[in-house]
Amino acid sequence: MLLKKVVGTSLKTVNLMNPVRYKFAHKLVENVENEKQEVSLDSENCILVNENDVSIGQTSKRDCHKLDDQQNIKLHRAFSVFLFNRQGEMLMQKRSSHKITFPNCYTNACCSHPLYDLENEREELNAVGIKRAAQRRLNYELGIPTSQVRPENFHYLTRIHYLDRGDGVYGEHEIDYILFLQKDVDIKPNPGEVSEICWIKRDQMEEQISTLDGPLTPWFRLIYQSGQLGLWWKNLHRLKKFEDYNTIHKLN
Predict the structure, then answer these.
(1) Which of 64, 111, 141, 172 is catalytic?
(2) pLDDT tens digits for 210-229?
(3) Is 110 a catalytic residue?
């Protein structure tokens, strides 16, 4: 296997065992990156929903993720993108140490929120607002050009509802839209968001995930352990068969 390592602007390739990993050596100032994460907590507003995924308002990203005195977290709308290349390998990322929620955890290609602040991300018909948010975040986190991940390229499968109280200060409580995308794209990760990426093979999924040097995010772990990820992955060529827009699956 080959590992491509980015150091500054140079690209070096060396032979390594599975999985293929891309690690980024960078000298970003620690407090600058932390400040960016803190600013986004107060400047970006998420969409609050009830258990039926009906929009009931908005609040800051901080307010959406911070546990209250009763250890509750506001339910809000989110998405998870699972990205596959033409060979059928799945991209995983390791969240940067600067992330407020679940830093240094491995997860699927991109996990984030549609913003209430952006009117076109509030559009609910055919989940087009969710797909626009996914396009925006794939560009921001992984540097994928927006022209390569248009809303019509995403396959919306279903929704899950999960709760995880994280570190006891910040956690997640989401109605999470599952989006699949199979396409070869150009990737240039933002090291303030992503510290590592790797490609996982379906027939080696359990082995490769077990060797990752960090924990999994709760949403990825729940989807993976439910068995649905493997089933969907096996059927990339006929995902329409697995569309379920009527059920919100509770995972815990």
Answers:
(1) 111
(2) 999 999 999 999 999 999 99
(3) no
Catalytic residue, from 33, 89, 121, 174: name it.
174
46 is known as an active-site residue: no
How many angstroms separate the CA atoms of 159 and 134, rounded?
A: 15
Copy the structure tokens of residue 213.
Answer: 């040097």
pLDDT at 26: 52
| Global pTM value | 0.89
List all residues 6 or more positions away from 214 whose beta carbon is below 8 Å from its beta carbon: 94, 104, 105, 106
Long-range contacts of 166-170 (CB under 8 A, 24+ apart): 166/65, 166/67, 166/101, 166/102, 166/218, 168/67, 169/66, 169/67, 170/65, 170/66, 170/67, 170/100, 170/101
Instruction: Kindly report the average pLDDT of the chain as a whole number.
Output: 89
